[in-house]
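User: Please predict the structure of the protein below. I'd like the answer in structure-token form so I can feed it into my own downstream comparison script.

Assistant: Understood. Taking the following sequence of 424 residues as input:
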Amino acid sequence: MSISLVPGVDLHVIPTTKYKTIKLYIRFAETLSKETISQRTLLSNLLETNSLNYSTQADISKKLADMYGASFGFQVSKKGDSHYLTLVLNIVNEKFLPHHENILAEAIDFIKEVLFYPNRSEAAFDLETFEREKTNLIEYIESIYDDKQSEAALKLQDLYFQDNDQQTPSFGTIKDLEKVTANSLSAYYDWMLANNAVDILVIGDVDEEELLSLVKILPFEPRTSPFSPGFYHQPARQNLLEKKEQQPVVQSKLNLGFRTGIYYHETDYFPLQVFNGLFGGFPHSKLFMNVREKESMAYYTSSSIDTFRGYLTVQTGIEGKNKERVLELIQEQLESLKHGDITDEELLQTKEMLRTHYILSLDNGSALLEKSYLMSKYPKACLSDEEWLACLNQVTVEDIKRVANQVTLEAVYFLEGSLSYEED
């Protein structure tokens, strides 16, 4: 069931007896903007920590324990030209409780409290909570950059994309975070609550009409400016961008950014899935078998695709002295796919692994909620399981060759380690 509660606020329900729990998302979506990403991440941390009537994290933890060990939190993410702030709540199905308490109604009341009654006064968030969570978030962002594999991926993103919004990580930046005050965040919270597109997604053994009556207690007002998520399209670059940095680490990181021009459930979406599996997505891929195993030129190597931005990345951990040879080998693997150098066994194995991943996702409540959300926003994604698997099965070597010839290297980021293993 999908129904509009008020303009811009939709409810999607997936009734199933498969699980003993009920999972609920409330997603706030807006156009991706560097100006608000850091605010949204800090806001998600504040709303998760306390509220007006649950003034400490211990109070929230006690309430979750009272709801038979419910789990609760917020997530931030970006997809295409959109940024999402998502409340996630998992509760036990009351049918499995001894006295059949109405946990779902209690859970909706809890959501109303944390979303609509935050810990603030006089148009500012509680200063003690604000300062603590701001400090915690700064330390968290610093820890991400301490992981050199993550840092290389983010530095490649910054190099590859031409748009400041796309260059910014989904969790924001320390520089932008330092500008946020308890007052400015409170003002942004009010704006988000009134203007973001809202989707409430529920999966579990629920009565749809009862759920509908329950969520109506959430005081969402109509959105005045309807939001529709979309893809991010970037003009092709004429020249290859390269950036090199050196740090006192042992293992060098060589990351490559490719343009695909292929988008979620648009033309060549399924051939791209198979191409990526053959290129670097799976353990039998050409990058893994030839760069890592046969040539022993990488400690790790893989590829991944972003079909909301037409973007493909290759990540490697190497010895710095091998950079040029690794670049050469990666290009050789791409060229082999451009020429259709694919055995029947490789093609079959790749399709089988994609099929297995898809079927496993059908048993994952979170994956099903994400799928439901995307199907509600992107009509071309509205395929039955049988149709999805049939589209995968129809991919040919010629299709893969066509995709491979669209894939163009546009950015190379090299984080060179200045230490040797002997020095370490």
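That's the full token string. The chain has a mean pLDDT of 95.
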